[in-house]
Amino acid sequence: MKLRNIGRPDTDPNYRYKMPVLTVKNEGRGNGVRTVFPNLVDVAKALKVDPKYVLKYFGIELGAHSEVKNDRYLVTGTVTAKQMNDILDKFIAQFIICPNCRDPEIRWEVGSNTFEVDCAACGYHAPLKVQHKLYDFILKNPPGGAKPKGGQKKAKKGRKDESKEEGEDAVLEVKQKELEVDDEWSVDTSEEAQRQRRLEEFAERKVSDKSAPVDMKEKATPTTMLRAFIKEKQRDVRDVLAELRRIQLARSLDETQKIRLLLEALCETPKEAAATIEKNARLLAQFTQDSLSQKAFLAAFEEFVITQQNFMPYVPHMLQAFYNAEPQVLDEDAILMWADSSISLVGGKEREKQAKLVRQKAEPFVEWLKNAEEEEEDD
Ligand SMILES: [Zn+2]
Question: Which of 31, 123, 277, 279 has its CA 20 to 30 A from that of 150?
Fold first, then answer.
């Protein structure tokens, strides 16, 4: 993989902030011509930014329609790699580099009507002074899917107005909705019920675990709670299982939801997912002791990827990690059976499409698995 310095000329090979060179692929012909950015997710990860903002920036700069389609990031029209890397540099200069120390270490802090940056390298903290349409887009679509507090209606109205002049906003907005992590785990998802459950959970937690961090009040979702629990200190498998069980009871999760929750809590970023799986193999293998439980585990995995679309490209890597892990989490039979299994029609057309997509993504690994013996000799 070719690397470049972030926000600096490539003359300094020892510069510590690197990112992959953005690749572009032109596709289609005639009116359907478009440009795909196959490694935008990796580039965005190096920049510690949601790829949707980078794509949006591209669209604005090019005056083109931008879209995420089947987790492929694309714009209409033809552009060259050089052109796109120049635009990317401009984006980095405006939104990624600290205005004070020039390191790519700023974190965005987006409020209902404020956009400040906080630099981890030098401590610089100030409103971001950038005049760009993306700035407004970020204000209306803050990171993490969080809606700005208050003024929400206003923001929505503003968004509607803007989409009239821009067009592509509507598409991105829909896409973003699909990408949003759904926290509706429980049967009763009314706000009051959720609040009540949270309260119960807190009462429970206070008694059972005095050391638990208190800063989980507002945003506590099953995933963030479990993740915080796991990260807090070295936990052994039994501890995590007990906590998982506790959340399962508090939220009335079924087995699939429980395993999905565990995967979500463990796998924070798509790129590190495979390594995370191998690292936590002993824990994960607790759920896959026989062929039936492996089947259930794969159903949960499928659900996880469908709700966390950014993991979609990493389906083969993750499956491979389940397979390679020590102890093994999923065996060959289970994976092949899942890959060939018919798709449930219960969830409707969209669900069916997504389930097909997961299997399609899995193909490289499944093929490899089928030919594993021959491949070993080639290696
Ligand atoms: Zn700084």
Answer: 123
Give the domain CATH number at 313: 1.25.40.180
Better pLDDT: 233 or 216: 233
In a domain, 276, yes or no: no
> Rounded to the nearest whole angstrom, what is the distance from the C-alpha of residue 257 to the centroid of ligand 1?
41
301 within 8 A of 263, measured Cβ to Cβ: yes
Distance 219 CA to ligand 1 centre (A): 28
Written as one string, the DSSP assignment of 28-80 is --GGG-EEE-TTHHHHHHHTTS-HHHHHHHHHHHHT--EEEETTEEEEES---
Give me the CATH number covering residue 78.
Answer: 3.30.30.170
Domain count, the chain: 3
> What percent of the chain clears pLDDT 70, i.e. is strictly above it?
78
- 193 has pLDDT over 80: no
Kindly give the distance from the C-alpha atom of residue 94 to the centroid of ligand 1, in angstroms, as a whole number: 13
> Residue 104 C-alpha to ligand 1 middle, in angstroms?
8
What is the domain extent for residue 202?
Answer: 181-253
- Asked if the model's pLDDT at residue 64 lies above 90, the reply is yes
Cβ-contact 312, 319 below 8 angstroms: no
Domain boundary among 179, 210, 231: 179
**Which residues have CB less than 5 Å away from ligand 1 (the ion)?**
98, 100-101, 119, 121-122, 124
Same domain, 46 and 151: yes
Kindly give, in sequence order, each residue whose CB lies less than 8 Å from that of residue 20, ignoring residues fewer than 6 positions away. 1, 2, 3, 4, 39, 42, 43, 46
pLDDT in tens, 265-301: 999 999 999 999 999 999 999 999 898 899 999 999 9
pLDDT of residue 184: 31
Alpha-carbon distance of 267 to 263, in angstroms, equals 6
Question: Is residue 130 pLDDT above 50, yes or no?
Answer: yes
Do 163 and 16 share a structural domain?
yes
The answer to the question of residue 226 being in a domain is yes
Which tokens go with 220? 């506590």
Cα of 13 from ligand 1 centre, angstroms: 21
pLDDT at 156 over 70: no
Measured in Å, residue 103 CA sits from the centre of ligand 1 at: 6
What is the whole-number distance in angstroms between the Cα of residue 125 and the centre of ligand 1? 8
Distance 16 CA to ligand 1 centre (A): 15
Task: Identify the domain boundary among 126, 147, 179.
Answer: 179
Same domain assignment for residues 89 and 166: yes
Residue 188 has pLDDT above 80, yes or no: no
